[in-house]
Amino acid sequence: MNIGAAAKASGVSAKMIRHYESVGLLPPASRTDAGYRLYGEKDIRTLQFIRRSRDLGFSIEEIRGLVSLWQDKTRPSREVKAVARQHLDFLDRKLEELQSMKNALSHLVDCCHGDERPDCPILDNLAGAGNLTRM
Amino acid sequence: MNIGAAAKASGVSAKMIRHYESVGLLPPASRTDAGYRLYGEKDIRTLQFIRRSRDLGFSIEEIRGLVSLWQDKTRPSREVKAVARQHLDFLDRKLEELQSMKNALSHLVDCCHGDERPDCPILDNLAGAGNLTRM
DNA sequence: GTTGACCTTCCCATGGTTGGAAGCTTCAGC
DNA sequence: GCTGAAGCTTCCAACCATGGGAAGGTCAAC
């Protein structure tokens, strides 16, 4: 299985497969005589693991830890849960941040009549929160 | 007003003030004979405008547009509102993405007993969503 | 005149991903 | 056996916003 086929099978782009190998998230793939990377079933499973972890927003470093826990058949699930909880906290913080941006901005958008006239509460607010539409 | 004082007054770091100038978001500051950048009231107001825009998550390019609308006293508020709405859509998409990550992950965390035993629904799910706890 | 706080420019790093360029290999069709 | 397309290789650079640090100049106060 060449890198292109592995990319299709795993849902990870060839570019990213090479990148993950370069940062040591994947062990170096075996090669053909011509230098082409070769992948087997097990590699595909690892790549899918990585992709699903990325889909949940885990960072490369977190995934590094998850993969090693995954491969350690004697890991305590406590450790996995701790990594997941920590990431959950991160997601919560990000969500809160975005949500407050959204709240502030959608309030401003609601206040702006959005026609041909130049006066605009959005710009007023950005120019100096003190003047108008203080949230 | 040197760059340090401008940074304090505006809440934008000196590093970022220089960066904004280098990418043309700010006009080049005037300089002392020694080459120190000088800032006045108007510059501070622009910097605060930029900072507040960043706080709402606008990108540099979007801010470039907002600043130019701000300075154009004849702009139609329609245009400002369009920029804001577009960013609001962006925030919504990001929020949805994070929220679905959070939902999936918190479900997995709930399923994991998190003790000394090695079996772990979180890893099982990452290893192959087909097996267990399909969302 | 020295010390310490400030300023300057320049380069590098982050994180995850993507893009391109230049060159080699493989394979199918003829 | 030749040709062309597609796929592979490595390397380098970009995105966005931010920060760190080095090497050196400047300004104030003591």
Protein described:
Two copies of one chain form a homodimer. Chain A is an all-alpha fold and 135 residues long. Chain A is built from six helices and two strands; from the N terminus they run ααββαααα. A two-stranded antiparallel ribbon of chain A has the order 1-2. In chain A, strand 1 (30-31) and strand 2 (37-38) form a beta hairpin. The radius of gyration of chain A is 24 Å and the shape is elongated. Residues 131-135 of chain A have low confidence and may be disordered. At the A-B interface, helix 3, helix 4, helix 5 and helix 6 of A face helix 3, helix 4, helix 5 and helix 6 of B. Chain A binds a DNA duplex (30 and 30 nucleotides) through helix 2.
Compact summary:
The structure is a homodimer of 135-residue chains. Chain A has helices at residues 3-10, 14-22, 41-55, 60-71, 77-111, 121-127; strands spanning 30-31, 37-38.
